[in-house]
Amino acid sequence: ATTLRAAADAIGKDIGVAVDVNKLQNNAQYRNTIATEFNSLTAENAMKWDATEPQDGNYTFSQADTLVNFAEDNGQSVHGHTFVWHAQTPSWVQGLNATAMRTAMVDHINTVANRYEGRVDSWDVVNEVVSDNNGAMRDSFWLRTMGEGFITTAFQTARAADPNADLYINDYSIEGDNAKSDTIYRIAQGLKSQNILDGVGFQSHLILGQVPSTMEANLQRFVDLGLKVRITELDIRLNTPADANELAQQAEDYRRVTEICAELADCSGITVWGLRDNDSWVPGTFPGTGAALLFFEDYAKKPAYTAVLNAL
Ligand code: XIL
What we know:
One of its GO terms (biological process) is xylan catabolic process. The chain is an alpha/beta fold.
């Protein structure tokens, strides 16, 4: 194959990219590369709550519609991101009491899921609900106001709203076997037993040379529960600027992650969290680091691109 898309199609997997809808609208080369190289799209921001329902009951779908229409025009699937998260959720939601917050959540999920029913194939229903502290639940406004049941409510609502969409729980630092992934495992077991969970999303915001040695076995234990797994937000950052050795190590890290998904029949695919290094959220969030993706700023393919292509 000569494109990621053709290689992924050939093994029946998704190769996805997080899309900046403004660039999709304004930059032809960005648009063409996304159409050529990927068979799955995720909105980097355009389907988050602050984008889709900035005020109570006032839904704004123009950016999300642009992305879904583009995917449809180009024969691409869409992995939806995300209904319930502690970030990028408007303050009007955060200040509600338990009853009103539940109502707002149910209304939001129903409205967004129904709008894209049959066009969005899968959803990150809840995002980042576990903390980094010994696998405790994250201390968010959702947990404080609604209690742990907020997760079940979200999945029950999403299942009823679009029974054909695959429903995922999504988080970071759960790629390896650790306290946080143990908690995700327990939550996933409970949701799966109620038949309201289909998969686990492993964000995989990784650091150069640090693909967890337990990653394959960890994904396998979720597959053994009868769930799909998915690499949902892959990037591999390093201290910038990158030298040739670092780009080679990065290619090896991308190769390994791709191999893990390719070898697992129940790994639905890989989404990289942005197109070019300069499109990435990484430099803004982890200062001094970057160069985390598959394309250089001029759209030239990095060694990591070739590694993914060959591992698919
Ligand atoms: C990031 C986007 O890439 C940025 O553009 C935005 O400013 C903040 O959010 N985990 C997630 C994603 O689930 O939604 C985040 O995306 C990155 C971390």
